[in-house]
Amino acid sequence: MGAQIREMVLADYEAVVALWKSTPGVDIRPVTDSREGIERLLARNPGLSVVAVNDGELVGCALASHDGRRGFLQHVVVAPELRGQGLARAMIGTCLERLRQHHLGMVHLDVVVDNESAMAFWQKAGWHRVDTLTRLSLAL
């Protein structure tokens, strides 16, 4: 793995969105995934989100945040040509280590319902489906 993992900064936004848009199964939300939304995320959760850069090109990202009790991972994406080399696991490991420093009880993530490859990846990595909860949402 030649890619370098570093903290995500707002200047990465356009490249991150381009990666999301080129990745099937990524649900880009108009408010929270807007430039302003990502700016808020990075400001409220400094140092938690990461990107992977290979030969000057952004090839991966993982958003991480917490609410003081639970951590959250979102939009963990690796460019297709670099998948299977451990880059996602490295980004996830970096995010989890940074989240552990906040003494949180658990970390959650969402997988789009029909994204079978993502579900297989996360389950292989040791994550499990929570059948005792159903996520409910309300648009603001």
Automatic annotation (TrEMBL):
<dbReference type="GO" id="GO:0016746">
    <property type="term" value="F:acyltransferase activity"/>
</dbReference>
<protein>
    <submittedName>
        <fullName>Ribosomal protein S18 acetylase RimI-like enzyme</fullName>
        <ecNumber>2.3.1.1</ecNumber>
    </submittedName>
</protein>
<dbReference type="InterPro" id="IPR000182">
    <property type="entry name" value="GNAT_dom"/>
</dbReference>
<feature type="domain" description="N-acetyltransferase">
    <location>
        <begin position="3"/>
        <end position="140"/>
    </location>
</feature>
<keyword id="KW-0012">Acyltransferase</keyword>
<dbReference type="InterPro" id="IPR050832">
    <property type="entry name" value="Bact_Acetyltransf"/>
</dbReference>
<keyword id="KW-0808">Transferase</keyword>
<dbReference type="Pfam" id="PF00583">
    <property type="entry name" value="Acetyltransf_1"/>
</dbReference>
<dbReference type="InterPro" id="IPR016181">
    <property type="entry name" value="Acyl_CoA_acyltransferase"/>
</dbReference>
